[in-house]
Amino acid sequence: MAHEMGHYVLNHGAKLLTYFGIFALVGFALARVLFGLAVRRWGARWGVRGISDPAGLPLLVLIFSTLVFIATPFINTVVRVTEREADAFGINTSREPDGMAKIALKLGAYRKLDPSPLEEFIFYDHPSGRARIRMAMDWKAGNLPTGE
Length: 148
Description:
The chain contains 6 helices and no strands. The protein is mostly helical.
């Protein structure tokens, strides 16, 4: 619960909306430029006259699909950073590092707990279980007395 409260308190909704809006604007601009380049080069052969021509829809879908594929690791990184911030808020609020580590282990039932750094960068939109457990145990070592 504290993790989800962290999203609210840290204003992640507005931040993510802003970031995704910027990604969308850049994506639409790139798609327009790439579509124009492709039509100038191959448009006559493909029978595509411009961006308003319905015959260009497959090309536009290909361009958008490629751009989303390329942007996915960066989008995942933006989300992963907000998730890490919410984790930090949650652990500072609840002061339950063992509970956080146990939850991270339970989440490992449906996703890999210890991915490689490259795998985490490309595919993970949340911190890996290993990263969450490490955060909890580092917090515990630095914030709780030895006997707790």
